[in-house]
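Colleagues,

For the teaching module next term, I've prepared a clean inverse folding example: a structure given as tokens, and then the sequence designed for it. I'd like students to try predicting residues themselves before seeing the answer, so please don't circulate the second half yet.
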């Protein structure tokens, strides 16, 4: 008698349109060793049939790099926001529940609109401005100690997991969240980026900025890259206080 094929059960929260009500569908797929959640979703996409034999539409989700670099495949897996490319089926309790991140508007199924986070990055000018595209030659040197901690902050892949984990980021709050705040510290630490330091600090000293952080520290626990987000927020609080006094006494913005 042939041995019965081992299977894996997924319960997926689905949503057909941004305005429609969410519902759940259960899928059972053949088990394969070393399978991640993305591989399971691709199996369901190839054969979109529920556990009870009902033909349905393929599940919609986002993915790109498949190696925890792009941040596109964020979703809530067994109640925890994380990357589905690095979530291994063998390490998950069954049935495996997949849900979209509810901090962001749902577009369809597991795919969300992360514009809220990207708009916040625009607000804080999370980039190094340069004058033209020509070769500027070697840039200013950074002390090695500063370069090391700045590199840790640069690992952010804008996955949105920290915003999903933060209780202060929701549809009743305009808090920009941990990731954009940490990027302010990163770009203010750069010798060229420091020229816009006061402007970035002004952006986070206003509504939806630092004052909206409740210091729950969920973001540090959830971050897939282990970025010291609360350390950045604490450092920015000190810098914002100094900037506030500079503004009050009319000091020059230069540091």
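(Answer key — instructors only)
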């Amino acid at each position: 008698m042939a041995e019965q094929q081992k299977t894996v059960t997924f319960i997926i929260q689905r949503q057909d349109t941004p305005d429609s009500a969410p519902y759940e569908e259960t899928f059972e797929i053949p088990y394969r060793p070393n399978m991640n959640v993305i591989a399971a979703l691709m199996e369901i996409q190839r054969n979109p049939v529920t556990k009870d034999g009902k033909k349905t539409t393929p599940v919609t989700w986002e993915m790109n790099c498949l190696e925890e670099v792009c941040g596109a495949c964020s979703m809530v897996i067994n109640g925890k926001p994380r990357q589905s490319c690095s979530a291994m089926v063998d390490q998950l309790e069954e049935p495996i529940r997949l849900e979209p991140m509810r901090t962001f508007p749902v577009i369809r199924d597991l795919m969300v609109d992360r514009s809220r986070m990207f708009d916040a990055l625009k607000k804080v000018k999370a980039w190094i401005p340069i004058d033209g595209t020509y070769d500027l030659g070697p840039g200013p040197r950074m002390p090695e100690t500063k370069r090391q901690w700045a590199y840790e902050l640069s690992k952010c892949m804008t996955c949105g997991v920290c915003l999903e984990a933060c209780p202060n980021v929701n549809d009743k709050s305009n808090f920009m969240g941990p990731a954009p705040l940490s990027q302010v510290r990163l770009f203010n630490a750069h010798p060229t980026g420091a020229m816009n330091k006061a402007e970035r600090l002004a952006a986070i000293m206003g509504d939806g900025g630092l004052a909206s952080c409740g210091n729950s520290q969920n973001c540090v626990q959830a971050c897939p890259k282990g970025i010291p987000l609360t350390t950045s927020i604490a450092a920015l609080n000190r810098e914002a206080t100094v900037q506030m006094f500079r503004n009050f006494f009319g000091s020059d913005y230069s540091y």
